[in-house]
């Protein structure tokens, strides 16, 4: 049994910076993808057109056979003029991180209304607003990692109402409430779903650092909602892996004063793993839409406009094999999600 997918595209991926990128970037293609929508939360964050273009050049030097769609980090430094400049240079989107909710988000935003002139400029030039859909935890208001996404949804509705022509992506949805919220919005609002959130629930990361990510996996009913919208074939829901590599020593350990790193690394196994998951809940027929056509249609990125990459990728069914325990290059080592567990699909 084999399946051929036209031009799979990952619309949310972290490729890091510096020497470790030499290990990470080639895993985009290894996992079956030739288009990567690249997150800007570096140190320092990518806040200007010049930074985005330099970062893109760095990635292309490592692997020129992938199309990298670049983003800016929503910050006080951004201006409407910079948005227009970035759009003209080919930068595709702007990523919003609420302050302190995930890796390298200390410079995140606290008030969306402050950025309405930015959103207006983005709406004018056709850039995409990518929303990390959580609010910061606040014990006094009973806000925590399990309800932070639900508490964020009024912000989504408010921004969409103010800018109905602005394309918005609610990133890495984890709750039934988020799925229903996106469905209620107009055609300019889309949503990414990760592979790992199709596999995990809260029990899987409680006490297991290798499954810990932000937003955290939620309840079984929430996971069912993610799976069901893929089975439904809804055109505004598509893959964004949120593949987020961390060194094993940061991922596997914590201390009384420092938590383990949040994020799981799926890039090296991504397309076979997604096929495995969709097959497990009866959605394999919708694999092409989820990993290719839905996202490409929303982002207006048909393969015909892509200058590099494979026109299609073929998966074949195999006897179950274990995922590699680790990947290494020089002094750098990374452990993939699902390490040591079995997958019964591989790239042909």
Automatic annotation (TrEMBL):
It is an enzyme of class 3 (hydrolase). It comes from the Eukaryota. GO terms for biological process: 'de novo' pyrimidine nucleobase biosynthetic process; 'de novo' UMP biosynthetic process. Residues 71-173 form the Amidohydrolase-related domain. HAMAP family: PyrC_classII. PANTHER family: DIHYDROOROTASE. This is dihydroorotase. It comes from Ephemerocybe angulata.
């Amino acid at each position: 049994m084999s399946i051929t997918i036209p031009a799979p595209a990952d619309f949310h991926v972290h490729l890091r910076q510096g020497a470790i990128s030499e290990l990470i970037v080639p895993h985009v293609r290894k996992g079956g993808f030739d288009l990567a929508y690249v997150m800007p939360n570096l140190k320092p964050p990518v806040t200007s057109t010049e930074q985005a273009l330099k970062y893109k050049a760095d990635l292309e030097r490592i692997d020129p056979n992938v199309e990298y769609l670049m983003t800016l980090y929503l910050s006080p430094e951004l201006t409407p003029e910079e948005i227009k400049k970035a759009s003209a240079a080919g930068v595709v989107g702007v990523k919003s991180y609420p302050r302190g909710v995930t890796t390298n988000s200390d410079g995140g935003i606290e008030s969306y209304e402050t950025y309405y002139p930015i959103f207006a400029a983005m709406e004018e030039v056709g850039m995409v607003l990518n929303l990390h859909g959580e609010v910061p935890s606040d014990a006094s208001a009973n806000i925590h990692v399990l309800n932070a996404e639900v508490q964020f949804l009024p912000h989504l509705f408010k921004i969409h109402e103010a800018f109905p022509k602005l394309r918005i992506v609610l990133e890495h949805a984890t709750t039934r409430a988020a799925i229903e919220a996106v469905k209620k919005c107009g055609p300019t609002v889309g949503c990414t779903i990760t592979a790992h959130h199709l596999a995990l629930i809260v029990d899987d990361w409680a006490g297991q650092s290798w499954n810990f990510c932000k937003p955290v996996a939620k309840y079984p009913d929430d996971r069912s909602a993610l799976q069901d919208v893929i089975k439904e074939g809804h055109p505004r829901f598509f893959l964004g892996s949120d593949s987020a590599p961390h060194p094993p020593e940061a991922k596997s350990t914590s201390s009384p004063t420092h938590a383990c790193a949040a994020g799981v690394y799926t890039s090296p196994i991504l397309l076979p793993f997604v096929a495995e998951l969709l097959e497990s809940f009866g959605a394999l027929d919708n694999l092409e839409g989820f990993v290719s056509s839905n996202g490409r249609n929303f982002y207006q990125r048909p393969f015909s406009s892509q200058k590099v990459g494979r026109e299609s990728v073929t998966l074949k069914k195999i006897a179950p094999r274990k995922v590699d325990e680790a990947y290494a290059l020089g002094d750098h080592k990374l452990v993939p999600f699902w390490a040591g567990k079995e997958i019964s699909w591989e790239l042909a």
